Amino acid sequence: MTPTRKRRLVAISMILFAVGVATTLTVFALQQNMTYLYTPSEILAGKVPADARFRIGGMVKDKSIERGHSLTVAFVVTDGDGDMRVEYEGILPDLFREKQSVIATGSMQGDRFVATEVLAKHDENYIPRDVAEAMGKAHQKHNVPEDAAKPSTY
Amino acid sequence: MNTLTLWFHKIGSPPTFYRLAGRFTPWLFALAALTGLVGLYGGLVLAPADYQQSDAYRIIFIHVPSAWMSLFIYFVMAVNAFIALVWRIKLSETLAMCCAPIGAAFTAITLATGSIWGKPMWGTWWTWDARLTSELVLLFLYVGVIGLYHAIEDRRQAARAASFLALVGIVNVPIVHFSVKWWNTLHQGSTVRLLGPSAIDASMLWPLLLMALATKLWFLGSLFARARASLLELEAGKDWAREEALRTGAAP
């Protein structure tokens, strides 16, 4: 390798290394500050400033969906440790159902969360319908809780 | 010089690469079309419907291979950019610059299909979560490389400047890949994993992998075709380019 090329190799490698370190540090810093969502137990623990607009994430609790007149709907979002009542008026995504992960944007009003947008989170599992039905039957027979087969998303 | 470096120098010379690539390109396109058609048929017709999303999940057969390609092509571009910056090999400069438009196209397809899927499934076209945002940054990086390359008059200087941008931007590639692990995102985690079992049924997995192969072949064919045209333009005054033009009947 000629001296010029060696010099270039060292210079470029140094720049790459520096950019890499800078990015790693930024990523670590963002990991602590950049929260896309809060879970119900985090909200109950007072980690969210009052009157702030934020996102709440968790599972829709089983048998908690109450439909009001027209598009009004209320449901409970749970993360296993804490529950939060969420109220929303609007069209819900296709994947919205009980025991589904959802992310709602809005703010606290008293002890309930009033959402302006409700998004459903899809998990990474893709299963053919007949396989899913067979799995469901087997789980019912052996009394396996439904969530046990899936990795937890939060 | 040992045989390996000698061989490398020979392949790296524009006339040799031009001829070799010309021989491979039609085959690559033909194979890409074949695997792509079989993959699409398998994905859109043969694969069973999903238990939650029914037929709407089938966009995965376009979205996921495109997303893989958007990262893969960036990596190929960055490696070529590195070689171009250190060794100043003309072929590497050309290859790096020819990667950018193809990668940008795959990134745009990824963002568009993801958005189309996101509206019915998530309930929104777009959200500023880490995965979506970093993929958008990837598109901007590609567009930046293309823009910088065309903004400078001297072709070789332009290629080196754009190569530098491409190389620095490589830090975004691991961010895109690991964003779903490092942060709480709306986007789901990886379905297909290299290590450990995939979270997708085998009947849905094989068309997906076939599509991944098809996009790779198409990328190679497209890259070779672009690089050939680019090399001819770059070396227009050289003897081999003139001979090539005369041989194919084009005006010299």
Topology overview:
The complex is a heterodimer of chains A (154) and B (252).
Chain A: H1 3-33, H2 40-44, E1 54-60, E2 66-67, E3 72-78, E4 83-89, E5 101-109, E6 112-120, H3 129-142
Chain B: H1 3-12, H2 14-46, H3 60-87, H4 90-121, H5 130-151, H6 155-168, H7 172-182, H8 202-234, H9 239-247
Give an overview in words:
The complex is a heterodimer of chains A (154) and B (252). Chain A is an alpha+beta fold. Chain A has 3 domains: 1-34; 40-120, Beta Barrel (OB fold (Dihydrolipoamide Acetyltransferase, E2P)); 124-154, no CATH class. In chain A, strands 1-3-4-6-5 form a 5-stranded mixed beta barrel. Chain A is elongated, with a radius of gyration of 23 Å. Chain A has 3 helices and 6 strands, in the order ααββββββα. With 252 residues, chain B is mainly α. Chain B has one domain (26-190, 199-247): Four Helix Bundle (Hemerythrin (Met), subunit A) (Up-down Bundle), CATH 1.20.120. In chain B, 76% of the residues lie in helices and 0% in strands. Chain B contains 9 helices and no strands. In chain B, α3 runs parallel beside α8 and α4 (90-121) packs across α6 (155-168). The longest helix of chain B has 33 residues, at 14-46. The mean pLDDT of chain B is 90. At the A-B interface, α1, β6 and α3 of A face α3 of B.
